[in-house]
Amino acid sequence: MAKVDVVADVLEHYADSIPQHVGIIMDGNGRWAQQKGMPRVYGHKKGVDSVRAAVKFARQVGIKSLTLFAFSSENWKRPEEEVSGLMDLFMLVLTKEIKNLHKNNVKLKIVGDITAFSAGIQKKVASAHELTGNNTGLTLNVAANYGGRWDIVEAAKSLADKVKRGELESADIDEALFDSHTQFAEQPDLDLLIRTGGETRISNFLLWQVAYAELHFTPLYWPAFNALAFAQAVEAFAGTERRFGLTGEQVKR
Q: E strands of the chain, at which residues?
């Protein structure tokens, strides 16, 4: 694939096969930094450049939703210095990047239990949601203090409350109704899940949504993930026959 104009190449060859919703587990920031003799937080800071590149690429090729796993509900267990650095970086990104996102018609949605964050971060999140809420371009979901199991439990609790109040019969609950109570309601189904860093785990990310997504694992650490690497993931996705439980012959017909 040519490196000169990656976006043009993707649109020329795979325009009919662009995934509508892509999730990315941004793994390997710390290991990338350690290989360079730097503290792990340095890797997280450099990873912001890859976030910018991924958002730009997604906008240019017509991806509707991009979901980035920024901070899992399990990441609180990491060393205090790293967690503190991540919180500072989160605050900085919410302050510096939001105007550019708004300028490019990107709708930002912070997905997860934000009540665990500081009042300052919660205020920035609310402000970002308000500023970009009516934008109609790419929806950028940033999963922060998020876990796939948490998402499922929250949806179940919401439905249970409606049944308790008499607003709903338990027999009425089906997959579509359950899906409408998850954090990604009204967004396209997840088509492609990318994980950087060489690991081949889902790590409690988008567990409900990943049911029929294609999985793409790359050994590249997140700070090294660029538009070309994203294009290669789209190329692999385009070359996959998605059967959704059918046979290959049925799909062809």
A: 21-25, 65-72, 107-111, 139-146, 192-195, 214-217
